[in-house]
Design goal:
Structural class: alpha+beta
Number of strands: 6
Strand order of the largest sheet: 2-1-6-5-4-3
Order of helices and strands: HHEEHEEEE
Shape: globular
Radius of gyration: 13 Å
Number of helices: 3
Helix content: 25-40%
């Protein structure tokens, strides 16, 4: 079960990165639960898919792309949730992910319930 959850998170995370890197904010937001919370320092907190989609759309509109994770750590929390932490970089910024909480959905996919990250430059 642990291996399956980790594999599902890797797949879901790749789906999010592909959406972002192709300029698809709707696809980014679809990787979050409906009532997910995202805390993006220093930008603020965003609740729900609509606010989260708007945040990603603004970044895409500003020319940000090429996101990649640096040394991600994936830790199974229980039978339905997985925590991911990582460094990250893209063409115009870099930082750290302090908490991506991925949760198993009824359809067997993983979705983000919490996303906490910081832009450091």
């Amino acid at each position: 079960m642990t291996t399956d959850l980790k594999a599902a998170v890797i797949k879901a995370s790749e789906k999010w990165k592909t959406a972002f890197n192709s300029g698809d904010a709707v696809g980014c937001a679809a990787c979050y639960e409906t009532d997910a919370v995202m805390v993006a320092k220093p930008f603020g907190a965003f609740a729900g898919r609509t606010e989260i989609q708007s945040f990603w759309q603004n970044l895409i509109n500003d020319g940000f792309t090429g996101v990649d994770y640096i040394n991600p750590e994936i830790m199974v929390q229980d039978e339905k949730s997985v925590l991911l932490i990582s460094g990250w970089k893209m063409n115009k910024a870099h930082g750290v992910i302090t908490r991506e909480l991925w949760v198993l959905q009824a359809d067997g996919t993983m979705a983000l319930r919490e996303d906490h990250f910081e832009a450091q430059g």
